[in-house]
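Sample pair:
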Amino acid sequence: MAQPEIFYRKTGDGPAIVLLHGFPDNGEIWSDIAGQLAEHYTVLVPDLPGSGRSPLKGPTSLNEMAIGIEEIMSFEEIEKAVLIGHSMGGYTAAAFARLFPARIAGLSFVHSFAATDDEQKTKLRKKTISLLKNSGKKVFVGQMTSNLFAPSFLVKHPEQVRSKEELGMRMETEAMINFYEGMIGRDDNREVIQNVKCPVQWVIGRQDNVTNYKNIMKECHLSTVNFVTLYGNCGHMSMVEQPDMLVKDLKTFIEYCYFTGQP
């Protein structure tokens, strides 16, 4: 089988995990988390097309990104994996669950959910696309970055906020527009979550200004088996704001998917 077009990192050994980044990040956002999970698991961390070391070769939907993840798993001869998706990565994981339900051992939404955008969110995304086309990415990335974190984190850790902004600035404007258009056009996957035959995890930030925790709470009962954690003093970036807690919760979930919850 040919080498997948999507660049990805592979570390560790054992049952497989795929870490899917959000917008406008790349797989580097998972570096610390991946290192700890790789102590017990095989960890795959892709750069979705248009981010990091994966070029954007043309308009790419979230479904097409999900197909790219399946190609990576097939290349690595991985039958099943726990997919962990942050924000837009969660949308991609849900698309994967729709297209390849038999290849999911577990599904984790980190500050993400399965429904489509409401009318207000769609209008906001279209406004952002217009801003990116007319004014470029600098103003947008600066404003978005400050909105990703809890207020107390912004004050206490300005260096990490700057690092996140620098990571976002590495993404080309064309790729940002493509990701936003892909998010607008994504499927409503709530029915998929209802029917998926694996555990589902929901990691929620009480101070998340990007993905309102109330919207996630509407979905976190849909699956037969749900793991739900609400981080009180956290925004949209638990892998940066609350990494120790996130690793602990992910390990508990993954262990259940592969060992504890098995008959």
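The longest helix spans residues 243-260.
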